[in-house]
Amino acid sequence: MNHSSSRELKRSQSDLGILMGKSARTAVLVIASLWVLAPLLLMVIASFKSVPEFFMNPFGLPEEWKFSNYSRAWTDANLSLTLPNTIIVTTIAVLISTILSSMIAYGLSRKKKKYAMGLYILFVSGLLVPVQAIILPLFVMLKAVGLFGTLLALIFPYIAMGLPLGVLVLTPIASALPRELVQAARMDGASEWQIYWRIVLPLMKPGLISVSILNGVWMWNEFFIPLILAFKPEVQTMPVGIVSFIGSYSTEWGLVFSSVIVSTLPVVIAYLFMTRQFQSGLTAGAVKG
């Protein structure tokens, strides 16, 4: 009887420990979510305020919801031009860099390890190079070939700078692909291009989506390169256009926040639609077998 009571007591303590552990994890997740969402909520509220009201009541609801901030942001920040520019640059750069990264990753996964590792490290080391260190030679090179001040002056650097992350994520995924499929396709007479396009690329889809999202977010929000290389108003992107509201003596904070929200929405919507693929892509190459 005592032995049975002791087991029941241990089981109750174990269940209590599990419940407390779940409660602690839930509390941490709730706090972390509030930590992230609270500034976003304040930014949305501030986007409907005038400048005086923003300083007099920064955390409260606006007395008058100024929806005109969004229409002014569309015209004054030239979002009608900078938004299409950002979409064009980001879409083309992400698409090309992702495809090239998958080709490189597939090639490295099929090479001998002693050769592939050196090339892999060489590509991935590009993540350690700050853009400030290459902006001057990039400026000179683009000026020499006549691309300076065009959208191509943004697309080509973005493609090159998107390769290291793509190779880092996709090479383990390519290495985990079953070699039997490739060998069977080769025995059936498929060319290397057919093997890559019809077999390898579909199997790497989750990783491709992850790379596209990771590269797309920083390309969409990148400020320094467009500021230096896209000096013409007709080729500027949204981050550069938003800065036009920030002055030395006064800043139109309502317009700044409304512009930021407009520029953020496409990225958030894309992520919400591809959350599952993004998560599976990050773990696709974690276990090889």
**How much helical structure, as a percent, in the residues?**
over 70%
Structural class: mainly alpha
Strand content: under 5%
Low-confidence stretches: 285-289
Total number of helices: 14
Number of strands: 0
Averaged pLDDT, please?
A: 81
Gap between N and C termini: 50 Å
Q: What Rg do the Cα atoms give?
A: 25 Å
The main β sheet shows up as: none
Q: What is the global morphology?
A: flat
Series of secondary-structure elements, N-terminal to C-terminal:
HHHHHHHHHHHHHH
Description:
The protein has 289 residues and is mainly α. 76% of the residues lie in helices and 0% in strands. Helix 3 (68-76) packs across helix 13 (253-273), helix 7 runs antiparallel to helix 10 (205-221) and helix 10 (205-221) runs antiparallel to helix 13. The model is unreliable at 285-289 (pLDDT under 50).
